[in-house]
Design a protein that fits this description.
- The structure is a single chain.
- The protein starts with a helix and ends with a helix.
- Helices cover 59% and strands 8% of the residues.
- By secondary structure, it is an alpha/beta fold.
- It folds into 3 domains: 128 residues, Rossmann fold (3-Layer(aba) Sandwich); 63 residues, Helicase, Ruva Protein, domain 3 (Orthogonal Bundle), CATH 1.10.8.60; 123 residues, Zinc Finger, Delta Prime, domain 3.
- A 5-stranded parallel β-sheet has the order 2-3-4-1-5, sandwiched between helices.
- Helix 10 crosses helix 12.
Length: 328
């Protein structure tokens, strides 16, 4: 990202860029900044945008070969074309002979680094990946926004806020805006305000349900499940999230068994710090054998539901009943 920032600041642009990755908020921010820097006068005659997998490479090349009309450059933005995952013959070769007046920008969520397109852009332009940000980076970012708004927050309440919002920066920005408006007359963002105004992730509700299962509080776990169903959460999505949480617990339990501490587990797994902090006490309630058995059974259950041998609602209910009464 620093190199892209430098390009924008110096107004020295590559002929082709690829912006990709799962952090949509940052990717959009830099896409917009790049568009504004390349096209400050909002020229519509020499700027074009293609969106989607129906984009025709030959038409893109034809446009790229068209000399800009009374302008310094021709700008072409291409979004979610799939060119970096699916076969694309003509564009990789064209990357090596891009006209000097051209700036072509690809914006994708997923790419195959082995593809000819990726290698061609990497060789002839600039590739920028937007990864999910670390907890430390998110904390600094949130504190920066709060400072501009003359607001403060304690470390514990910051952890609570991020645990409720997750790591998606778009969601964090939305929830933070709500929180700042709610606390307009308060200098300090309080725990009560966070609990009152922020929307909790469905993953957190699933984790609370799993915690109830590990505590063998079957009634509480089932009540949470029925609440999720009442909120119109699809049973298969709930099952998928249960599977993900148990996989996290298994990872954490295996690393705890190897003598690793919290920071080492964060580094080894790439999980966020607050995720590992919450997972450690729950994982310790299980033996490795029970966690492995649970992960395998959840996979079997998904297969049985998809094949019609078991109803989706009942499948999750049976898992909760079994493991909330299971000896750890």
């Amino acid at each position: 990202m620093k190199e892209l920032q430098a390009d924008i600041k110096k107004q020295e642009f590559k002929r082709v860029y690829l912006l990709y990755g799962e952090e949509e908020y940052l990717k959009k921010q830099y896409k917009d900044r790049l568009w504004q820097a390349l096209n400050p006068d909002h020229d519509t005659m020499n700027a074009a945008v293609y969106v989607g997998k129906d984009t025709d490479p030959s038409k893109v090349i034809d446009l790229a070969e068209t000399v800009p009309f009374f302008a310094e450059r021709r700008i072409i933005f291409l979004e979610e074309t799939g060119f970096f995952k699916n076969k694309c013959e003509s564009l990789p070769e064209y990357m090596a002979e891009l006209p000097e007046y051209l700036c072509m920008v690809f914006v994708e969520k997923e790419v195959d680094r082995r593809s000819r397109m990726y290698k061609a852009v990497n060789k002839n332009g600039r590739v920028v990946e937007f990864k999910k940000q670390t907890e430390q980076t998110l904390v600094r970012w949130v504190l920066g926004i709060l400072k501009k708004e003359k607001k403060k927050i304690t470390r514990q309440d910051m952890e609570l806020f991020l645990s409720r919002t997750g790591t998606d920066m778009s969601r964090i920005a939305t929830e933070l805006e709500k929180l700042i408006c709610y606390c307009v007359d308060d200098e300090v963002i309080s725990r009560d305000a966070i609990l009152e105004i922020t929307s909790e992730l469905i993953e957190n509700k699933i984790f609370d349900m799993i915690r109830a299962i590990t505590e063998r509080n079957q009634k509480n776990a089932l009540d949470m499940y029925y609440d999720l169903l009442a909120l119109k959460e699809p049973p298969m999505r709930i099952l998928f999230l249960i599977a993900r949480q148990y996989n996290i617990l298994l990872q954490v339990r295996e690393l705890l068994a190897q003598g690793m501490g919290q920071n080492e587990i964060v580094s080894k797994t790439g999980l966020q710090g607050f995720v590992v902090r919450n997972a450690i006490p729950v994982a310790r309630r299980y033996s490795l054998s029970v966690l492995r058995e649970a992960v395998e059974e959840i996979v079997r259950t998904e297969t049985e539901v998809k094949s019609g041998l078991l109803s989706d609602v009942l499948s999750v209910e049976l898992l909760i009943v079994k493991y909330s009464g299971h000896a750890a």
